[in-house]
Amino acid sequence: MVTADYSYITLSGFQGGAGFNNILTSINSLGSASPFFNSLAVGGFPGAGGVDSFTTPGSLLSYLTGAGGKGNPAQAAQLYLVDYFRNLAQLLEESWNTTVNYSIPTQNAGTFALATNGTIFTSFQFNPGIAGLPVVQGAGASNNASVFGGTLPRYRFYTTVDWTYRDLEVTLANTFASGVDDRGGSGTLPPIRVSDYATWDLRTAYDWRGGKVKDLKFALGINNLANRMPPLDPRVFTDNNADVSTYSPIGRFIYGTVTIGF
Prior knowledge:
mainly beta, 8% helix, elongated
């Protein structure tokens, strides 16, 4: 059995802040024509005693540097900035979800089964809705450019091969995520390649039935056979040097279980 589901989703006008750096850059470039002009004041917060002083382009930079062209901390301490939430941003998502299941029963060698589930991202495009700020493509990349930042492999699959023979079951599983381009926190830097990620799991179980115990199952497994660690991505994930929310940080793990049914 093969299935494929296609999704095309557009989110428009959801709330978000523009970011302090973006607000300051816009006001310095456009003056009173900036859409964020009323977000910045001197001597107090906008609308609460502060003065909107930066009406002409370049006046903010001149205020902060002074005649000598150097930064003036005393001047900067007089700035009061508010990042109001605005309904500006847009997200375009386009993807496929696929499923494949195939089973081969045999007369003397048991049953072999193959199953895979996967997601293919064609697009995950974020538009901040602010003039001068770039549209960021998140599919196949890692970044911290928005609330939708993070790691998004274009291809991600979980595949299992299962062999069942009488009361014995053996399963080999693979998790795969395609490599991504590290484009830095802004999502616009020259890309650095982050490698593919693949792990293998192995599990065997025996189901014993008889006597007063109706069902007794023993299982032994090893997750992450090769002890694979998450791929390094230090430019975006400066704390762990890797995205431990997308890739498992747990190394080789051996476990056993016993299940009893009466």
